[in-house]
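pipeline/complex-builder :: batch 7 item 3
reading input block
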Amino acid sequence: MTRGYRALLAGIDLDIKPGELWQLTGPNGSGKTSLLRAIAGLIRVGVSGTIDRPETLLFQGHAPGIKGLLTPLENLQSHPGGLIEVESDRVREALAAVGLLRFLDTPVMRLSAGQQRRVGLARLWLSRSSLWLLDEPFTAIDRQGTTLLEDKLRSHCERGGAVVFTSHQDGKFGANLNQLELADYAAR
Amino acid sequence: MRPDSLGFCRQLFVRHLRCGVRRVEEVFNSLVFFLMVVTLFPLGIGPDSNTLRELSPGIFWVVALLSALSVSGRLFSADFEDGSLEQLAVSGHPLGLCAMAEVLAHWVLSGLTLVVAAPVFALMLNMVPAAIPTLMLSLVLGTLCLSLLGGIGAALTVGVRRGALLLSLVMIPLTVPVLIFGTSAVGEAAIGYDPSRWIALMGAFAAMGLLLAPLAIGAGLRISLEQ
């Protein structure tokens, strides 16, 4: 895989099975985000080899596609990523699950950075895709939210889903976690 | 294309309209821009009402073109920054079609508001009142063409920093047909001719744009997201 004129990663052979939780690790600039975007199909130029991906997937980048002018409810009901349930009762439940029940009708721009991240992450509670690709999902999330998110990722895998995420933190996933250290695959 | 793609696009259209309505000052600003430029012409070329009347169709359309250029450059930039575009790209729906929801919402907010305000501006330029219905009709089609062309340009330049000038260079040659059809329609209506052939040509241009713009915008956005 190359970005611009720079060879970035080489020799990656990754098989993500249902029920597996993968963490991409590596120093800054090692290509975690690039690999995740390639898996999602956002980067095609400079990727050699094949990537088989399911028809539907949930991808969450650094920016979650949330509009500051809209309320959390409106944001999720018309989210550009699609593939989630949009019935307002379900969306309300999801927002309650991430602790935003009091802010259903507040424009997102008036929420804090962490709360804004939570609006994006509420999509996980509504998702209809089995593969989740999450780029730094724990950024700006407090300790209680981190536990909540870890539980969510684990339960998704237990129900036969698969998750690939990038993070610098070692979560409390124990033996269920597979790690891919990208420094080992740096292209020379 | 999936069976629910059109429903999804309708949702997106409402989303963009809702955002646009909550930021209504931007719509207002582009009308004020129009007003100010229209005011400059009598100051620049003199207040002689006959000269002004003769030039008014051309002035109107050139200003419409410039104001469309000035707003359409940012058509996708907010979506690019907040991650909406990459979400669209992984949604499994055709990217070009989804982006059309945004282009059409932009047209409703910028183009159609200009159509409503057009009679006032036309009278300020001393346009023949009989030509005003033609002006409004040609603006409905013409602003749609400009929004579609702007969408193509914006899709190509959304990832480019300071892409505004580049966008103008790409777009201005493409907008020439709109300018010619528009000024001809209004000009002929002003001297009592039937302008319908110009309107028909403009309608054909808009129809072609509606057909081809989703393909071009989709391809442009895919390139812009490759970074």
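note: Strands of chain A lie at 2-3, 6-7, 21-25, 57-60, 131-135, 162-166, 177-181.
queue -> next item
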